[in-house]
Design brief:
A twelve-stranded antiparallel beta barrel has the order 3-4-5-6-7-8-9-10-12-13-14-15. A two-stranded antiparallel sheet has the order 1-2. By secondary structure, the chain is of the alpha+beta class. It is elongated. It is built from nine helices and 15 strands. The longest helix is centred in the first third of the chain and has 11 residues.
Length: 388
C-alpha cells in the first residue's frame, strides 16, 4: 500500500503530515475556515507496512536538513521561475487521490462559482407575466378579482318597446341656407350709349339640392335707348364635389322704341369650380320654337392682396338657328371680355372699376348692321359688388 505525506516547512517550525485519507487538526481547521493560501510544499513517497506504528514509518529529519530545506524553499522565486511553477502544479497522483486532502485549483474555482449569487432566473420568467396583487382581502382586492356582470342577451322573439318621447333630438344636418350675390351692378359708358348693367346669382337650399336663380341685363339711361333682361329659375343637384347639375326655365325680354319681344327656354347646364379655382357655367337652351343655343361663361379671381382683387371674365354665345326677331344669327353670336379691379371694404360690399369689350360676329353682326346698331363696343365701367 502506497502512503504519501506532505511536509511543509514554515520558518522551520511547523511540519504537517498526512497519512491515508486523514487530516491533521491544523490542516482541517484551515480547510473549514476557507483559507485559500497554499504554502510551498514538498512531496515524498514512502512505502511502509500499515501494521507498524506511526513513529516507525516516519523518520524525522535533523535540524541541518530542515535548515537546508528552509533555505531552498525561501529562495527568491525569480531565480528559478520554472521550478517554482512546477512545484505549485499538482501531480497526476495527487489529482486522483487527494480529494480528501487540500482542495485543488479546480475545486476552489467550483466552490467560488457556487458561492456567487445566482441570477434570478425565476424572477425573469415570472416578470413577463402580469403583476398580481399582493393582497387577498379588502374592497380593492374583491373589485380586481370579481368577474364582470354578464349582459343579458335579448331574445329576438320578444321585441323591445321604447318610448319615442325619450329619444334625443335629431341632429339638424339638413338645414336650409340662402346665398345672393350681385356680382355686377355698374354703369358703362364710352363708345356706345350709357347703360346700367347688372348680373346676379343666388340659391336657396342645402348642400345637395338647391333652387337657383340667375338674372342679367342692361337698360339704357337715355330716353331713346332700349334694353334687354334675362331671368333663369333652376333646380340644382350636387353631382360631384363643387359641381351642380342644373335644369329649369329661362325667359328673355327685349324692350325699346319698337314693340317688346320675349321668349322662353328650357335650360340644362352644369356649374362649378374647375381646377385652379376657375368658375365655370355652361348651359344649353332650347326655345319654345325649338331653337337651340348655348352659352359658356368663365371667370377667375386673382388676389393681389387680401382686399384688392382682380377679376377677369369671358362669355361666349352660340346659336344653331337664325332668329331675326331677336337679332340672333347661326354660329358664333358674340364674345364679351371684361376686367374688373375691386377693393373689398368688407366681404359684403366691394366697389370696383374696370373695362369691358364686346364684339358680334358673322350673321349676328350682319343683323346688327341692318338695324343700325354697333357691332363692337368698348366701355369703361364703375360699380359695386354686393353679397347677401
Amino acid at each position: 500500500m502506497q502512503h504519501r505525506y506532505w511536509a511543509t516547512a514554515l520558518s522551520g517550525t511547523l511540519v504537517s503530515m498526512t497519512l491515508g485519507s486523514g487530516l491533521l487538526p491544523a490542516q482541517a481547521e484551515e480547510t473549514q475556515t476557507g483559507t485559500k493560501t497554499q504554502p510551498m510544499h514538498q512531496e515524498v513517497e514512502i512505502s511502509a507496512n500499515p501494521d507498524l506504528p506511526l513513529a516507525d514509518l516516519l523518520e524525522v529529519p535533523s535540524e541541518a536538513e530542515l535548515s537546508a530545506e528552509e533555505g531552498d524553499q525561501l529562495a527568491p522565486l525569480t531565480s528559478k521561475p520554472s521550478a517554482t511553477a512546477d512545484a505549485l502544479k499538482p501531480t497526476i497522483a495527487e489529482t486522483s487521490n487527494s480529494g480528501a486532502l487540500l482542495p485543488t485549483h479546480a475545486q476552489e474555482f467550483e466552490r467560488t462559482e457556487e458561492s456567487k449569487v445566482q441570477p434570478p432566473t425565476l424572477f425573469l420568467e415570472t416578470s413577463r407575466q402580469a403583476p398580481q396583487p399582493s393582497f387577498t382581502n379588502g374592497p380593492l382586492a374583491q373589485t380586481l378579482t370579481q368577474k364582470p356582470p354578464e349582459t343579458p342577451q335579448s331574445s329576438s322573439e320578444t321585441p323591445q318597446t321604447t318610448d319615442k318621447e325619450d329619444w334625443p333630438s335629431p341632429v339638424k344636418d339638413n338645414q336650409t341656407f340662402s346665398f345672393v350675390l350681385i356680382d355686377q351692378l355698374e354703369v358703362r359708358t364710352v363708345d356706345g350709349p350709357t347703360t346700367l348693367n347688372w348680373d346676379a346669382i343666388g340659391w336657396v337650399g342645402g348642400d345637395i339640392r338647391r333652387f337657383w336663380f340667375k338674372t342679367e341685363g342692361d337698360v339704357g339711361l337715355s330716353a331713346d335707348t332700349g334694353g334687354e333682361a334675362e331671368v333663369q329659375a333652376l333646380y340644382g343637384q350636387l353631382v360631384a364635389p363643387f359641381w351642380d347639375f342644373q335644369a329649369g326655365l329661362r325667359y328673355d325680354r327685349l324692350y325699346g322704341p319698337g314693340p317688346d319681344r320675349g321668349r322662353a327656354f328650357a335650360v340644362v347646364g352644369i356649374q362649378g369650380l374647375a381646377p385652379y379655382l376657375l368658375e365655370v357655367d355652361a348651359s344649353l337652351f332650347i326655345s319654345e320654337d325649338g331653337d337651340v343655343s348655348a352659352r359658356l361663361t368663365g371667370e377667375y379671381e386673382m388676389l393681389l392682396t387680401q382686399r384688392l382683387i382682380l377679376q377677369p371674365k369671358a362669355e361666349i354665345n352660340l346659336a344653331a338657328q337664325r332668329v331675326e326677331n331677336f337679332g340672333v344669327g347661326s354660329g358664333l353670336n358674340d364674345i364679351e371680355l371684361g376686367l374688373r379691379l375691386r377693393y373689398e371694404i368688407s366681404r359684403k360690399f366691394a366697389p370696383y372699376v374696370g373695362i369691358n369689350w364686346q364684339r358680334k360676329f358673322f350673321e349676328t353682326a350682319d343683323l346688327a348692321r341692318e338695324e343700325g346698331e354697333s357691332v363692337g363696343d368698348f366701355s369703361a365701367l364703375a360699380g359695386v359688388r354686393l353679397l347677401f
